[in-house]
Amino acid sequence: MVDDRGLDDEISLLDIAVVVAENWLLLIIVPLLAGAVAYGVISATNHGVYETEAILSIDQREAALALAAPVLDKAMLESSYLQGYSGSLSQARRLLLEDSFTVKKDTNSEFYRLSVRDEDPQKAEELLDAIIDALVVTSAPNQVELARINRSIEQASASLQELESGLTNINAILARTDDGAAVGGGELGAAVVSLVSSIEQRRAELDRLELAKEGSVRPEDVVQPPTQALVNSRGLLMPVAATVLGVGFVLLILAFIREGFRNAGNDPSRLAQVNRIRRAFWLKPLTAR
Questions:
Q1: Are residues 124 and 158 located together in one domain of the fold?
Q2: How many domains does the chain have?
Q3: Looking at residue 78, what DSSP letter applies?
Q4: Which of 52, 74, 211, 258 is the most buried (most CB within 10 A)?
Q5: CB contact at 8 A, 125 and 207
């Protein structure tokens, strides 16, 4: 019994190999033709989708700001994106985030990639330019924040002047001190080091405050400006691949069914079962050979 079962398994595997070998040309050519037809139909019935991309040196907070309503609303209103659109601005923003605009962190660097997709390449490039401009403008401080920054600049400038004046006085004292009478030279030297360190900190703070007046995102943060919009063909690959695999699978099943009917037709003990299947599809029953 064990040997017969092993022989049956071997024959079954051999039958599978025979079916594939006899129909390999059909299993390859027909799915490829179906995929070519699917590609042609999808290309003819769907307009090409163009994609443009820019790379910015921004952080996570600024990347989130690029997806916020103040930036997107300003960009849509200042570009031709809403041309011919009759819905609300919030609805247009939702559709933009769902279908067209994405912000992703680059996998190989600390930069962020901003991309826009549209059926019109010029509209895609124009919208991405508008989004970057709106991000730069929106990241700039408002009137209240600007007034606070200016007050901080005035305070830091006054503190810097006091520190520089103190350093000048100490240098004058050291210049008048005789080499042999420099009793407090060590303390004065430590004071000079402390003043120099404080002056550098104040200058760095002033530089930071001056940059804050311009905004957290500046034009020089654009590492790569929007690229020329090119056709994004990724949307065609999935349906075409599904068509090729689906047609190939169906053909393989049909080949096994045909082989099964052929073998059963030669076996009188299974002929009755084959005829029942044929009658279910209104086909003429087979007769025993």
A1: no
A2: 3
A3: T
A4: 52
A5: no
Q: CB neighbours of 160 closer than 8 A, spacing ≥ 6?
A: 199, 202, 203, 206
The SS3 assignment for 142 reads coil
Q: Are residues 136 and 56 in the same domain?
A: yes
183 and 273 co-located in one domain = no
Model-level pTM?
0.54
- Contact partners, residue 157, CB within 8 Å, separation at least 6: 206
For residue 107, is it within any domain? yes
* Alpha-carbon gap, residue 133 to 177, rounded angstroms: 59
Q: Return d(Cα 246, Cα 239) in angstroms, integer.
A: 10
Whether the Cβ atoms of residue 248 and residue 29 lie closer than 8 Å to each other? no
Task: Quickly count: other Cβ atoms within 10 Å of residue 215's Cβ.
Answer: 17
Q: How confident is the model at residue 6 (pLDDT cuts 50, 70, 90)?
A: very low
3-state secondary structure of 53: strand
Is there a domain that residue 289 lies in? no
Rounded Cα distance, 35 and 80, in Å: 37
Q: Over the stretch 60-102, which tens digit does the pLDDT of each residue have?
A: 989 999 999 999 999 999 999 898 888 899 999 999 999 899 9
Domain of residue 75 covers: 50-140+222-231
Q: In angstroms, rounded to a whole number, what is the distance separating the alpha carbons of residues 71 and 79?
A: 12
